[in-house]
From TrEMBL:
Residues 363-587 form the Peptidase M1 membrane alanine aminopeptidase domain. One of its GO terms (cellular component) is plasma membrane. The active site is at E435. Residues 62-75 have a biased composition (Polar residues). Residues 126-324 form the Aminopeptidase N-like N-terminal domain. Keywords: Aminopeptidase, Cell membrane, Disulfide bond, Glycoprotein, GPI-anchor, Hydrolase, Lipoprotein, Membrane, Metal-binding, Metalloprotease, Protease, Transmembrane, Transmembrane helix, Zinc. Residues 62-90 are annotated as: Disordered. One of its GO terms (molecular function) is zinc ion binding. Its cofactor is Zn(2+). This is Putative puromycin-sensitive aminopeptidase. The record marks Y520 as: Transition state stabilizer. Binds 1 zinc ion per subunit. One of its GO terms (biological process) is peptide catabolic process.
Length: 1014
């Protein structure tokens, strides 16, 4: 097969089939016939081998068809792109190329195992890429050239008996139109064989180096690929724009992490294959902005193109991984630009929301100097662009020098009518700080392979809290850390099917699955634990050394362990008989986490460790950890240094002597820095609940969370968490404890919402919440700070959720008042989510239609998310079904980035859970096709749809769903299905063992406290 320019290439052509004659021929000629047949087969085999493994000889540039305008060979082999530029196509010719591409795909191998197997060839290493790429947005096509300088990997050496390994490039739906290989030393073209690998997911080149020393090579490729519609790779999207034809302004943007650079151009798409990049983007001249990782250094018109086309050239990047390469061409506008600040910080948005980027611009210019000082190293690029992409799969992506965000993760309305809630502002700040931390942890130093993803995500998460805690001191960010990161990690890490933080990653599905709370939240939690037991000085010095040694390179967790061990021993904070690797591998190489149980006998403590598992403890699980224990007594000074008691990995039980009076309380895991739960004997629990208000904030949060989860796992009975409900709700202003309580009630709500005992739960919660709601209410009576606003939101949310009449009536009244004049929304920003949801739940069709119209009209991304959440709160089944079907309708106005949010709103509604699961069952194939597998959309929907399933018939329904998924062949969701099955079984177990116990304690509490049942 040939491309348009006459160059040969292969696309896994199928072997021709021979025709066979009947064996009824005359016996005399039988032997002659067989011999003739064998000769024919041999000849056919030779022909097939020549077709499927073409030997291309590109001896000089004259082998290219002289009439082909696609590539200017002088520029193709120019020294640097800023000096010699290859011309791009002067005619499109896209239709013919597109047809060729489709024909080339016809013979693709569909074997799923091979399709998902990653290329990890280690024979050659990239040095430098010269990439010229042109997206045709209208036709969803990409045309480009890439020249890659490569060198032999030092791990192999050419010997007489050793075959030179092929050059293996990663590709995904990319058609190679031409290929050339040159020796850097001689400048001559080389003969080579080239062919596609299994399922066309790699392109292999075997250079003929006979008679020549193995040295650096340059590989030049002309290619064509597709602009994606699934927010992966190089993809296209649009946003409303009345000034554009059709009311839409189209853009093309990238999302290459984790393994989607190969969708845009042929490359060594692995984090340890770092190289420098010189990037050029060719586009129509009517695009207002074109950006890449580095600053623009050239801008010129492409001769002979109509309408006018330009090429933007960008400076060469530092040495970096392919997943960090980024570019975007669009009509977004420059909203903010830093003057006199280095690096230059720019914020890009849609024109009508330019003013919503101010908060992030100010925050970034505060955080960058802080992070430079914290890491002991400057930011390495001359500029930093922050771009609000109108349709974006992740919350954000840390591309070096060009950070891309979902609009709601970057924009913060600050005007009076649309100001953001405290929760939204904190969420935006957290995302921005996380991505800025990545510019060092992840970009400058990158994990060697995806099994150590946590090494960048865990660190970036933890350090984002440090940065915000220093820059927004009144936010108390480590209370947020405990509530959001630690509790999230605990929840996901309690399953028997949980995975270690670091585990073998071998397939594309493995890579996509590892982007989960274990890598992010658990990773952050164990980093915080290290910081605590090593001490801030040793920890920070270790980070400085690590970044200095491995900058512009890759590292693995063992590299970090060695450095931190040296610093811990030097500071005297790490015992000399322990090293960090020895300790931390018990946390990174095995799943789960321990629960530590304390039994007091005078001054002697018997302490045991056991893996915490749901739905119940498992005495046969012998997982053990090295655990840094901290123990605080009632009489101990708050300023007294804490002693770290090391719980050895080898032991299940230890004894300690503690100086404590018999009537004093004690607690463990000060400030909840350790990644473990704590259980006490009953007398100790009673002492702690009786002295609850004397405990530090993070310890109060820990007690509430641990009590509910320990009761769920049958370590304690539900009388202890119910007592804590009474204690916490009497303390109207105990912000940390209320935060923990709000989250702890979620599981009980999911399990009880459709059970008879829910009436008793409602009675208890209404009775205990009413006084706090009356004291706090809807209205701010003074100057509230950030924490006060978050607290008001939690209290009002619980009051309206549990149906306190005063709350639901007032919420609905405020919403109806807004309906009378949609331009005058007087609902407090912090309470919008609660009021919208409550009003749609107690209201009817007019409220839902009004909310959806506001969703369509608003230009605020955060407002859109609030309304998307609220639309799923209705209890009208047909409206919920309608809403779900809109998530797979491209004309509905619900972007692909928001599909999971809309589904979650319905699935977590007790009136909508069955509807959501039925939708998932009936539309699994359509959902998978619509969203693709890049952002685990289907996996997230499976998890959400099964949260409330707790009966045997739910298991049967899910088994049918799992069978259907298997028949469809969807390997990317296999792990999600296993986890969902475990979740359902855990729920069934809880319902059979704990439901009646909780019901008993609720009824008893109602009697003892004289609560009103109605």
């Amino acid at each position: 097969m040939k491309s348009k320019n006459g160059q040969k290439y292969t696309v896994n052509q199928k072997q021709p089939r021979g025709r066979y004659c009947s064996n009824t021929a005359i016996a005399v000629f039988g032997i002659l016939f067989v011999l003739l047949l064998l000769a024919t087969v041999a000849l056919l085999l030779v022909m097939v081998l020549r077709l499927t493994s073409q030997e291309c000889s590109l001896l000089d540039t004259t082998t290219r068809a002289p009439s082909d305008p696609r590539l200017n060979t002088n520029g193709y082999w120019g020294r640097e792109q800023e000096k010699s530029h290859p011309a791009m196509p002067v005619d499109d010719g896209y239709s013919e190329l597109s047809d060729t591409w489709n024909n080339g795909l016809a013979g693709m191998d569909d074997d799923e195992t091979e399709r998902n197997r990653l290329s990890q060839s280690s024979g050659w290493l990239p040095i430098h890429y010269r990439l010229i790429i042109e997206p045709n947005i209208e036709r969803s096509l990409i045309n480009g050239t890439v020249t890659i300088d490569i060198k032999p990997n030092p791990t192999w050496a050419q010997t007489q008996d050793q075959k030179i390994p092929p050059i293996v490039l990663d590709v995904n739906e990319i058609q190679i139109l031409s290929c050339e290989v040159r020796s850097v030393a001689s400048g001559k073209s080389l003969k080579f064989k080239s062919y596609y690998g299994a399922s066309n997911l790699s392109y292999l080149i075997e250079p003929d180096l006979s008679g020549a020393a193995v040295g650096n090579l340059t590989v030049a490729l002309e290619f064509e690929s597709r602009l994606s519609d699934t927010l992966q790779g190089f993809y296209r999207g649009y946003f409303p724009d009345n000034e554009e034809s059709g009311g839409r302004s189209w853009f093309a943007s990238t999302q290459f992490s984790p393994i989607d650079a190969r969708r845009a151009f042929p490359c060594f798409d692995s984090p340890d294959r770092k190289a420098t990049f010189a990037i050029s983007i060719v586009h129509p001249n009517d695009r207002a902005m074109t950006l890449s990782n580095m600053e623009q250094i050239g801008h010129e018109y492409v001769v002979g193109r109509a309408p006018d086309y330009v090429r933007e050239d960008f400076a060469i990047t530092p040495r970096m991984s392919t997943y960090l390469v980024a570019f975007i061409t669009s009509n977004l506008q420059l909203a903010l630009h830093s003057e006199g600040f280095r690096p230059v910080v720019n914020v890009w948005t849609r024109g009508e929301v330019r003013h919503q980027g101010s908060y992030v611009h100010r925050l970034t210019m505060r955080l960058l100097p802080f992070l430079e000082k914290y890491f002991g190293m400057p930011y390495n690029l001359p500029k930093l662009d922050l771009v609000a992409v109108p349709d974006f799969g992740f919350r954000a992506m840390e591309n070096w020098g060009l950070i891309t965000f979902r609009e709601s993760a970057l924009l913060v309305p600050e005007d009076d009518n649309r100001s953001s809630s405290a929760k939204h502002k904190e969420a935006v700040a957290s995302v921005v700080a996380h991505e800025l931390a990545h510019q060092w942890f992840g970009n400058l130093v990158t994990p060697r392979w995806w099994n150590d993803l946590w090494l960048k995500e865990g660190f970036a998460t933890y350090i984002s809290y440090i940065a915000l805690n220093a820059n927004e001191k009144r936010w108390h960010m480590f209370e947020s850390f405990v509530q959001k990161e630690l509790q999230e990690a605990f929840e996901k890490d309690s399953d028997r099917n949980s995975h270690p933080i670091s585990f073998p990653v071998e397939t594309a599905s493995d890579i996509r699955r590892i982007f989960d709370p274990i890598s992010y939240s658990k990773g952050a939690a164990i980093v915080r634990m290290m910081d605590s037991f090593l001490g801030e000085v040793a920890f920070k010095q270790g980070i400085h050394t690590y970044l200095q040694i491995y900058k512009f390179d890759n590292a693995a967790q063992d590299d970090l362990w060695d450095i931190l061990t040296v610093e811990g021993h030097r500071a005297g904070t790490l015992p000399t008989d322990l090293d960090v690797k020895q300790i931390m591998e018990t946390w990174t190489l095995q799943p789960g986490y321990p629960v530590i149980t304390f039994e007091r006998n005078g001054t002697e403590l018997t302490i045991s460790q056991q893996r915490f598992l749901l739905p119940s403890r498992n005495s046969s699980d012998n997982t053990r950890w090295y655990i840094p224990l901290t123990i605080v007594t009632e009489s101990q000074s708050a300023h007294e240094p804490l002693t770290v008691h090391w719980f050895p990995y080898e032991n299940a039980t230890i004894q300690l002597q503690i100086e404590v009076e018999s009537d004093e309380y004690l607690y463990a895991n000060a400030d909840r820095t350790g990644y473990y739960r704590v259980n006490y004997d009953y007398a100790s629990w009673k002492k702690l609940t009786n002295n609850f208000d004397k405990l530090p904030p993070l310890t109060r949060m820990q007690l509430v969370d641990d009590a509910f989860q320990l009761a769920r796992a049958e370590y304690i009975q539900y009388d202890i968490p119910l007592t804590l409900i009474l204690v916490v709700t009497q303390q109207y202003r105990d912000i940390p404890a209320w935060a923990a309580l709000s989250r702890s009630l979620v599981y009980i709500n999911n399990m009880m919402a459709r059970e008879p005992a829910y009436e008793a739960l409602l009675a208890v919660m209404r009775s205990t919440l009413r006084a706090a709601f009356d004291a706090i209410g809807f209205v701010d009576h003074g100057e509230e700070n950030h924490q006060d606003m978050l607290h008001r939101e939690r209290v009002v949310n619980l009051a309206c959720y549990y149906g306190i009449d005063k709350c639901t009536v007032e919420a609905h009244s405020l919403f109806r008042r807004w309906m009378t004049d949609f331009r005058d929304n007087r609902i407090p920003p912090t309470l919008k989510e609660i009021i919208y949801c409550t009003s749609l739940r107690v209201g009817s069709i007019p409220e839902w239609n009004f909310a959806f119209q506001r969703f369509q009209d608003t230009d605020s991304a955060s407002e859109k998310e609030i309304i998307l959440n609220a639309l799923g709160c209705t209890e009208k089944p047909w409206l919920l079904s309608k809403y779900l079907n809109m998530t797979i309708d491209p004309a509905s106005g619900i972007l692909k980035q928001d599909g999971v949010r809309a589904f979650q709103a319905v699935a977590t509604n007790s009136a909508g859970n069955d509807i959501a699961f039925n939708f998932l069952y009936e539309n699994i194939a359509a959902i998978n096709a619509y969203y693709g597998d890049g952002f685990s959309t289907l996996s997230k929907m499976i998890d959400l749809a099964t949260l409330q399933m707790n009966k045997p018939h739910h298991k049967e329904r899910f088994d049918r769903f799992a069978y259907k998924a298997k028949q469809l062949g969807l390997p990317a969701i296999e792990k999600s299905i296993r986890l969902a099955k475990e979740q359902i079984l855990n729920n069934i177990y809880w319902r059979s063992r704990s439901y009646h116990q909780l019901q008993h304690f609720l009824v008893q509490l109602i009697k003892d406290m004289h609560f009103n049942m109605y």
